[in-house]
Amino acid sequence: MVKKFKSIICIGMYGKVGFIAVGNEPFLTSYNGQFQSYVIPAMANLQQSLVRANLAGYIKLVVPCNADAYEGNVPSQGAFRPELTQIMTQLVSFLNSNGSPFVVNIYPFLSLYGNSEFPQDYAFFEGTTHPVIDGANTYTNAFDGNYDTLIAALSKMGYGQMPIVIGEVGWPTDGAVGANLTAAEVFNQGLIKHVLSNKGTPLRPAVPPMDVYLFSLLDEGAKSTLPGNFERHWGIFSFDGQAKYALDLGLGNKKLKNAKNVQYLPARWCIANPNRDLSEVANHMKLACNVADCTTLNYGGSCNAIGAKGNVSYAFNSYYQLQMQNEKSCNFDGLGMVTFLDPSVGDCRFLVGVTDTSASFRPYQRWVVGCILMLWQVWAFRV
């Protein structure tokens, strides 16, 4: 229990602690209420500690909620799930009395991923042929619709003006159908322009979210894939600190900058030996993919169509690079071999690792990205 229910400290780019997140999405439907009884007592204890340390005026406690905590056929009908009414009443009252915002994670990608009938264009900010009509209000993107559903839910509790922080929002670049570089760039760029326009939403015109965190800075190659293989590919930068796509941050000519002086390992790769019978390769692939990240090989991934032998090579190379190109790590009982010809195919990129001097950019490292992301008002998107 202690391992699962924890606090996350959110730090702005200037090193100042702004929020302490008590748990993360503790009200998920899939948790079946197992964490609900811990939330308010944990917050009360932490608040007492902040008061004793004279930090309550500077650090605010929040509870990041998933968008499934509330529901509604249209935004104006938004309400918290019936079984959450009591706990949400307590939580929102606590947040309000201590000057804390309501933190919510909104992922239009997940709506698209989980529902084959979800209109694809409604997930973005480019307009839609499937708008949601809610009385006098028209919604042309899922973000606004979701956001206003929350506002309606808060309004029903008497807190319609409570500040809202978007704790997580973004689009993955691999690992599923619809998760690709083009879609991620279109979504994130549309999101930035939308928030910086200060248009707000139909229920909060001219009042954008107080802060927005773009998830995430880097991919997390060791993250659980239980929700989907895309979970390891939310980063706007690749493992070596290179921007995956151009992103206009609304700061004139200032855009994403690539990491400099990254020290790569030699340009060599581990592939399946073309002269060997690969009929007994399954256990070796399993070993490689249990350690390294092979999620791009799955349906919808960028390496899904490279064929059986290509799959073996990709798995072998992923493991080989993670092992810092150790000669023995490409053996696989003689089924692997080192090549100096880049085996990348189309959009399927076979990685080359980085040296120990660039340890912070090692591929598949268990990145602790969490909340140390892009804080709109503190760094890139100050309004």
What's a quick, concise take on this entry?
With 383 residues, the protein is of the alpha/beta class.
Key terms for this structure?
2 domains; disordered N terminus; alpha/beta; EC 3.2.1.39; glucan endo-1,3-beta-D-glucosidase activity; 383 residues; elongated; three-stranded mixed β-sheet; 7 helices; glycosidase
The CATH C-level name of the largest domain is: Alpha Beta
Q: For the CA atoms, what is the radius of gyration?
A: 23 Å
Q: Please write the string of helix (H) and strand (E) elements.
A: EEHEEEEHEHEEHEHEEEEEEHHEE
User: What is the average of the pLDDT values?
Assistant: 90
Number of strands: 18
Tally of contiguous helical segments: 7
Overall shape: it is elongated
Q: Which residue ranges are poorly predicted, with pLDDT under 50 across at least 5 consecutive positions? A: 1-15, 359-383
Record the strand order, biggest sheet: 4-7-10-13-18
EC number: 3.2.1.39
Domain X8: 268-350
Keywords: Disulfide bond, Glycosidase, Hydrolase, Signal
Protein name: glucan endo-1,3-beta-D-glucosidase
